[in-house]
Specification:
By secondary structure, the protein is α+β, with helices and mostly antiparallel strands. About 45% of the residues lie in helices and about 15% in strands. It is built from 10 helices and 7 strands.
């Protein structure tokens, strides 16, 4: 929670139980390692995990930065802590993510996406280090230009310029999108009673094929009659 949110606001809860989910994934990794050890040595292992331990492991490079700096790293909300411009921006018709990851991309972004070559030529913004130092001057200029354009126009220009970007979709919109359907990420089945059930398919593939969902979650038991 201390990593999420804006700098001037309190710590922010993540949208789902991330530590619980990652503890399950760490458990799967540990079990695979234990099975591999058994295969090699014939000896089993006792695998133990704690939510607190997994939560600290999940802090990754931010946790290491906190130890090196001797304090909590600052919070930047939807912006990147060290790369500018990189984050969520508002277009004329909604939000999108733009990730200008290096100086060459910034040159193309200013010249071919927002038609502001003057920003690319400004020494305050010539390198990522300078852009990070002067983000308070740069970001209002960029935000004003982005608000004048639609997401479709921006995404087309960003793709043509080789700059990673994408729309920020609502959860239901993302799950029902053509991309999710083509990828087979959502499995829809009907019960004998005609009710719809949904299951999220595994995100990984083996040899180019996604594993099938064989069983649906069991239904709720019928209430007993008096």
């Amino acid at each position: 929670m201390a990593l999420n949110g804006e700098a001037e606001r309190p710590p922010l809860k993540f949208g789902l139980a991330a530590v619980d989910l990652f503890t399950g994934q760490y458990a799967a990794q540990a079990l695979l390692a234990a099975l591999y050890k058994r295969e090699r040595t014939g000896k089993g292992s006792r695998v133990e995990l704690a939510l607190f331990d997994s939560g600290l492991a999940l802090t990754s490079y931010y946790g290491l930065e906190a130890l090196v700096q001797g304090m909590d790293p600052p919070r930047y909300g939807n912006a990147h802590p060290s790369i500018v411009p990189y984050g969520v921006f508002e277009a004329q018709d909604g939000p999108l993510v733009i990730t200008v990851g290096n100086n060459a991309q910034f040159q193309r972004f200013c010249t071919h996406v927002i038609d502001r070559p003057d920003l690319a030529a400004d020494p305050r913004f010539a390198t990522n280090l300078e852009r990070s130092r002067n983000r308070a001057d740069l970001l209002p200029e960029l935000k004003g230009e982005l608000l004048r354009r639609t997401r479709a126009d921006l995404l087309a220009a960003l793709r043509a310029s080789g700059i990673p970007a994408g729309e920020v979709l609502g959860l239901h919109e993302a799950l029902t999108s053509d991309r999710a359907q083509r990828a087979g990420l959502v499995v829809e089945r009907e019960t004998d009673a005609g009710a719809k059930r949904y299951v999220l398919a595994p995100p990984y593939r083996f040899d180019g094929a996604r594993l099938p969902v064989r069983l649906l979650p069991p239904g709720l038991p019928k209430p007993e009659t008096a």
